[in-house]
Amino acid sequence: MIINGTRFGQIEFTESDIIHFDEGLIGFPKLQDFLLVPHKKDSPFRWLQAVVEPSIAFLVAEPTHFVPNYHPVKANSEETIVLATVTIPAGCPDDMTLNLAGPILLDGTSKKAKQIVLDDGSYTVRHRVFDKSKPVGEKAAA
Fold it and tell me: Residue 20 belongs to what H/E stretch?
């Protein structure tokens, strides 16, 4: 199968590549099927590309790459991958934030995924990756 994405051009994929969200993503309940597209070689970022709406793709990353002690839920299996949506304001990469309060849990075997809401106040939807008080490139303390 092929989709013509607005961000990545033609993307060839098979049925087994599709990640399915029974309930969609928060704010996008009708978008249930996505592909996980690498950003660049050796990059911690990936894109969650909607299959039926090629103009929609979300930047995601494994949050533990930036916040090593982030463990919001006990994973059901070793195949569970935790992702967080990433926001990078245009022209301001030092203002990058992660949505740690709405992680995406992906079962790498079944390709079923779910975005959950952590409403206990432990995490925020705009967790700053870089501390403004530190020089560019240093990670913020988690």
Answer: strand 19-21
DSSP-derived secondary structure letter, 99? -
Q: Please, which residues have CB within 8 angstroms of residue 84's CB and are 6 or more apart in sequence?
A: 60, 61, 62, 63, 98, 99, 100, 102, 103, 104
Q: Which of 62, 133, 57, 125 has its CA nearest to residue 97?
A: 125
Residues 123 and 117 sit within 8 Å (Cβ to Cβ): no
Distance set, CA 23 to CA 3, 36, 99, 119, 132 (Å): 22, 18, 18, 18, 36
Q: What is the mean pLDDT of residues 114-135?
A: 82
Confidence band, pLDDT 50/70/90 cuts, at residue 104 = very high
| 33: confidence class by pLDDT, cuts 50, 70, 90 | very high
Determine contact, residues 33/19, Cβ cutoff 8 Å: yes
State how far the Cα of 45 lies from the Cα of 64, in Å rounded to an integer.
12
